[in-house]
Structures are given as structure tokens and as C-alpha cells.
Amino acid sequence: MCVGVPMQVISIDGDFAMTEIDGVKREASLMMLDQEIKVGDFVIVHAGFAISKLDEEDAKATLELMREVYSPELMG
Amino acid sequence: MNYSDSFRDKELVQGLARRIAGMTKGLSKPLVFMEVCGTHTMAIYQFGLRSLLPPEVKLISGPGCPVCVTPNSYLDRAIALCRLPDVIITSFGDMLRVPGSSSSLMEERAKGADIRVVYSPLDAVQLAAKNPAKRVVFLGVGFETTAPTVAGSILAAKAQGVSNYFVLASHKTMPQPMAILSADPDLQVDGYICPAHVSAIIGADAYRFLCEEYKVPCVVTGFEPTDVLQGVELLVRQALAGESKVEIQYSRVVRWEGNAKAQAMLADVFTPFDAPWRGIGVLPGSGLRIADKYAGFDAELAIPVQVEELKEHKGCLCGEILKGKVSPFDCPLFGGKCTPESPVGACMVSSEGTCAAAFKYGR
Ligand code: SF4
Ligand code: SF4
């Protein structure tokens, strides 16, 4: 039920943003967001509301770290 | 998002699994970790994560899906409401097929009740604005991820002067059942895979008391296979070191303090109450009902109805399943009398339900 989907902000109009993922567009209320966002940012959208910003840099860093630590070569 | 594929990278997943196996090899007693989020349950089945893990690590499912833990009494009230001629029921789709004491919303819709599936509670407010002669009731169930969206709909209705919008609210909050399960002597949980998007709202700090009072490790984990496995690795590491603290694996979304604005909306619109959980019973302070100042939007107060007498379903083990005590395969009705097409219990209805996930993806 509360599966939040990561979507990219493509435009902002007052309290609402238009968001998109894989060609699917969805309007999301920004009423619940307590972080600044701008066009191009990723947000988690749940039931018509952006509930949280998704930190793309952090996602990339997490992945890189995982790759370093868990790569098959390193683990033998 | 292009990197969601990367979080499913096969080599990475296998590397993680191998590392967990190395760390736990030869443990005399398996480590038992519970996920309390239906989306985690789904991911674990969908990606076959159990089969990747060594026998020394066991994953069990807890009370993770808000549809599953909603009791018959709530559905019976919703069904009574939908039988009123001027009422339109709006809901997320999963609720429609959950059996109440003697009917379901789906059956009522087939008989002519006006029941509509909406994507957002805001859609229900719009529907009310367009149908002033009707009373539009939204079925407000869900955990801390969903509750603020419903709070937002009530605030929007108020701001727009929409007075024919109502919410039948029975939201649940997560940390309390985790505390109850931690205190249960029959259940040995060595760590929690904490819900991802619930935690985006309440913040990872909300689990600190569990670590302190019950000495149980908690890791907030994302939904991708690498997320879940990395979360498991962090739990294993804590368990082996005899530690119990909160860690955030899902740091790309979840912060320690959570979402202050959403928390403020919850505090404004709702009041905690002693909520009934299917199979678990009434847990003190574990639910959110509409606060007195928004009583005009409360369907339970504003639209009185006669609700039928409560009947529980014979033989269904949902209660035990939601407490992590039995697996769906232990239920004699599983796959026979009870399937996703004709569910006996709630755990088989929602796609996030443990029985439904087990049915779809098998062991
Ligand atoms: S996100 Fe919420 S509803 Fe969805 S599975 Fe997790 S706790 Fe359950
Ligand atoms: S298989 Fe069906 S009857 Fe058995 S516990 Fe699951 S939902 Fe209930």
C-alpha cells in the first residue's frame, strides 16, 4: 500500500510538481516535503504526495562502496 | 531511475550473500531477522533472497501490511457505509477484496454500491467537490507513510471548504507492534529490518527505544535486493558483536529525524488511540484517529450506521502469521480453500500480504 516510487521532478507549480519516471507522469503535492527541491531532483512519491527527497549522490556513493566491498574479485 | 538496475546487480547481490554466509558459518543457532514491512516481504520473495542466504540466517515476516492488519470490524463499518444511498466510498484498491464478517467491498460494488478506487486521497477530495449532493468517504488505513497523505487531504478539504468529504480513519503506527513482538517470549527476533518509507516519515531515531529496552538491533533498509542484503549484513554484524543500535542502510532517503513537516501534519490532524490489530489485538496508542478539531471530517462520528455483528474467519491463521509465529505453508487453507482469487484471510489479499507473496513466489 505505501510503496513509494522514485520519480524525477520535471516542473514545479506552486504547491504541486509534475513528476515522471519511465515515461509515466504524475502530479505530486509538495505539501508534505520539508526539503527544498528543484526541477531535475528525484523524490519518493506516495499516493499523490512527494514524501521525501531522494539523494542521487548518496545513492551513487552507496553503490560504489558496495562494489568495492563486495566485488567477487576482492572476495575471492 | 537508471540506477535501480544497479541495485539489482547480480554479482553484487551474490557477493553480499557470500559475505553473509562467511560471517555466519557454523553458528550453532540461526539468527532470526524480522521484516515488518510488506514491501520488504514482497521484495524478499520476488528476488528469492531467502534462498541466497545461508541456513544460519532466517528471515521472518511480521505485521507489515496495513491492509492485512485492518480488522474485520473496520471493514464491516465501511460496508455498512457503502450501503447508504448517498455515500461514495473511495479507497486504495487493496481494501476492496478483504473479506469482512459476511461481505467485502467488492461484493457490495457488484451489488451496486458506489465504490471507487483512487490513486490519492486528494482525488477523493476532488470527487467530493464535484458531487456536492453525495457524501464521499475515504478509507484511511495505512502506516505512517500513508497517514500524512490522508492528513493532507483533510487539510485540503478544509482549505477548499469541501464539507462533504469524510475519512473513516484507522491508521496504525509502527514502533508499538515491534515493541510488543520484542517482548514476546515465544518469539526470538535477533534484529529488525525496519520499514523504509515509514522511516522516511518518522525518522530512524524512532527505533532507538527498541534497541535500548529490548536490546534488539534495528537497520532501516531500502527495497532493492542489495539494500535488503546489506541490511541483513549490518544486522548480522551487530548480532555477532552483541550490539544493539539503529543503523540506516537506506540513507539516500531516510534521515535520523525523519520528515518534520509530515510529522507536524500527523500531530495536527490525528490523535493516538488504542487501535485493534487483526490477530494481535488492541495495542495501546498504536493507532491514529481524527483529532477533535477535525471531527467534522470523521466518518465514524458524522455518518452513524448500524454495523453488523463481528464474525472471524474459521481456520485462518493470519493472526499468527502477522506475529511471525507460523509461515503460510503451515496454514491448512493455504493454496486450497484460500488463494489470491478467493482469499479467506487478509494476508492473502494484498499483494504485500505474506500469504499472497508466498503463493505467488513459492518457498
Ligand atoms: S511501505 Fe508501508 S505499507 Fe508498504 S510495505 Fe512498508 S510498511 Fe507496509
Ligand atoms: S493462507 Fe489464507 S486462511 Fe491461511 S493464514 Fe493465509 S490468509 Fe489466512
What this model shows, in words?
The complex is a heterodimer of chains A (76) and B (363). Chain A has two helices and five strands, in the order E-E-E-E-E-H-H. Chain A has helices spanning 56-70, 72-75; strands at residues 5-13, 16-21, 24-29, 42-46, 49-54. In chain A, strand 1 (5-13) and strand 2 (16-21) form a beta hairpin. Chain A starts with a strand and ends with a helix. Chain B is built from 17 helices and eleven strands. Chain B has helices spanning 3-6, 10-24, 38-46, 49-52, 66-69, 72-82, 105-110, 121-130, 147-159, 175-183, 196-202, 208-214, 225-241, 260-269, 299-302, 318-322, 354-361; strands at residues 31-35, 57-61, 87-91, 115-117, 135-142, 165-172, 191-194, 218-220, 246-248, 270-277, 281-290. In chain B, the strands form two sheets. In chain B, strands 4-3-5-6-11-10 form a six-stranded mixed sheet, sandwiched between helices. In chain B, strands 2-1-7-8-9 form a five-stranded parallel sheet. The longest helix of chain B is centred in the middle third of the chain and has 17 residues, at 225-241. Chain B is globular. Chain B: Pfam families: HypD.
Write the layout of secondary structure elements.
The complex is a heterodimer of chains A (76) and B (363).
Chain A: E1 5-13, E2 16-21, E3 24-29, E4 42-46, E5 49-54, H1 56-70, H2 72-75
Antiparallel strand pairs in A: 1-2, 1-4, 2-3, 4-5
Chain B: H1 3-6, H2 10-24, E1 31-35, H3 38-46, H4 49-52, E2 57-61, H5 66-69, H6 72-82, E3 87-91, H7 105-110, E4 115-117, H8 121-130, E5 135-142, H9 147-159, E6 165-172, H10 175-183, E7 191-194, H11 196-202, H12 208-214, E8 218-220, H13 225-241, E9 246-248, H14 260-269, E10 270-277, E11 281-290, H15 299-302, H16 318-322, H17 354-361
Parallel strand pairs in B: 1-2, 1-7, 3-4, 3-5, 5-6, 7-8, 8-9
Antiparallel strand pairs in B: 6-11, 10-11
The complex binds iron/sulfur cluster (2 copies).
One iron/sulfur cluster sits between chains B (37-39, 64-66, 143, 145, 195, 197-198, 352) and A (1-3).
